[in-house]
Design goal:
- The structure is a single chain.
- This protein is α+β, with helices and mostly antiparallel strands.
- It is 20% helix and 28% strand.
- It contains 13 helices and 43 strands.
- The termini are far apart.
- It comes from Sphingobium soli.
- GO terms for molecular function: hydrolase activity.
Amino acid sequence: MKARGLKTALVTIVLGVSGMGLPTPAIAQPMALLDRHGSRIAIEPYAPNIVRVTIALDKGLAQAPPGPGPIAPPNAVGWTHSKDGGADIFRSSALALTVDPQPWPRAPSQMDRYFAPSLPPVTLTIRTAQGKLLTRMTGWEMAPHSVNGEQTFKVGARFDAPSDEHYYGLGQNQDGILDLKGREIDCKHYYDAPAGETVCVPFMVTNKGYGIVWDNPARTLVWPGLHSSTHWQSQVGERVSFFVISGATTDEIYTGYAKLTGETPLPPKAGFGLIQSKARYESEQELLGVAKGYRDRGYPLDVMVLDWFYWTRMGQLDIDRTYFPDPKGMNDQLKAMGVRSIISVWPRFERESRYFDMLTTKGWLLKDKDGNPVDGLPVRYDRAGALIDSTNPEARAWFWSKIHDNILSEGFDWLWLDETEPDVIPEGYVFSIGSGDRYRNLFPLVHIGGIAEGSARDRPDFRNMILARAAYLGAQRHGGLFWSSDVKSTWEALRRQVPAGLNYTASGIAYWGSDIGGWQWPKGPPPQAPVLLDPAGMTAAGMDYIDYPELFVRWFQYSVFTPTLRIHGQRPDTEIWTYGRAAEPILADWLRLRYALMPYIYSLGRHTYDSGAPFMRALFMDFPNDPKVATIGDQYMFGPAFLVAPVTEQGQTKRPVYLPAGVAWYDYWTNQRYDGGQTIEVEAPIHRMPLFVKAGSIIPMGVQVKSTAERQPLEAIRVYPGADARFTLYDDDGQTNAYRKGGMKADLAWDDQSRSLSSKTKLPSGQAIDGLVQIMGQ
């Protein structure tokens, strides 16, 4: 690249983030800037277990701060730099990074002259402080090409991949496999991905005690563990930049990720309850009638959702008073029932909407190369509107102000930001900060961030949350609840949800869920086994889909043990009493179980806020010494206690369950105890999903409530003996941001030898422990 082009790229990288109004680390000199025959390598520690490596041909690019996503300042306290035989060695209490010496290259042979790479080579090794090898970078690459009118490069790096290394994260890929090893992961947000929407969070965790944060928002291809190598390649860039985060446990890795990219806020307590939605409730009478239907039947409910086309036009940012004549009164009635509300807001503006011309004049819409707004989606014959350019801080501030004044002022509590991929694909187009290809995956971070920042400013004591469809590095800090997009209503789609969700949470994004029952119109192949539920009385789907009640029950059972519980779909009805008379009592029991577990689940949310670690966890996180769990993607842990084994096959009434080694397990339904390290066949009649509890677990159970707005005393504290146990029980008001300054905690401790449970502080409910303890399995 010519010098002028390098300077332009440097300005883009250095000023691009601050120009967006995003938090960014202060520009500082790295700990060391090395030169390997023209390859410049910057080593920049952020914590004892976090180090950034940047490689470029240009000194300024190597020294430039990270791109959007990371927000922590560099911190080299406790690190040392020494030299040994031409190698540069950087040490901390957690890591040792060695940049290898590169002797002056010999004269090239004839073959070398043809095949030799043009880049001066760089190799480096990262070990623990004790000398255990974590990873070795074997080379980097810059291949010139032209993208969206820019003369730029494909940039990448390769790492050794031992045969027993496994890989997790990288956002959402719905191809039904947990372990990423040996596959090509196309890391980009893509609504129309064949198996279901893909989402790029370029953070990959391994079972070897480290993770890599790849610092580039362009489309990135990753080949983890393919042919004994892991290869990263971004399609736009002028440097290689990545972070390595190590940890003796996976939780230490996630604590490092939170330190680097931002903590995960604790959602309002209502966000852990039932969120009831439909595409769409057509009037306020229909929406209020659904909420009243839950109350009349005695079923708990926390949130009602008003989905799209409540407006007069796409981009009007208004409410159609023909069908919603009194939205403020509607929300008042919901609150009187103990129910809160979420309303969907889209980032698109039709030409006929009142703001389109103003946004065009301001330059606040995604543009084509000629400066014209990009209007619609010709790939799906979708003409409805141009995309607001949320990379522009002025556009973000305007968007929030209109939503606040026009919509939230009517009493709605939280926002659903749909199409945050965005659905109008930016490739080939131009954001205010530059090429849509260069910033291909950035949109959800800035779009969600604008709403979070506006809410924090204008509703400072109100705990915010945002339902969103895509994420990027650091998106968790904006209070997002993410979901798997508009998936099909089939058994195959359900099977794919389980590993997809586990990789999403493995990407440092703790709050994930799916549209229970699938979003697409209920349609599936004929059942291949006897149907387990009579569909009589079903109004949610046509009677030609006779196994749909069975599918919905299995999907609901699974979702009770995901971070969020949300019913949604493009169906005539979606409420739990609309899947037939046989399904309703089963669904009601599982809904009550979710609310009984609310003290446990809410405490898990607090732990995630404190630690950064997800609480829906692939098994590799908790059982690193059991090699059998490395590729298991159809079971997982929900907090420290529950082993969840969803049923995802039609007609299935039993399934194999692997019980990880090193601990004993209790069948939640029968209390039978099993040794770990074995696979057992577990009965799974339609009313029951295989569920196990780890020996040495404490599970607080609450009394039944109609919503989380109601005070919930404890009904019991269940103890599963077999090992000492600790559990931090937490509670607060569930609505304000006071949790950031504390809250009510009780550190419960189980002494297995004396068979006693104790706490040095009062329970958050004010109850005494005596009389609540239930020792299971005896």
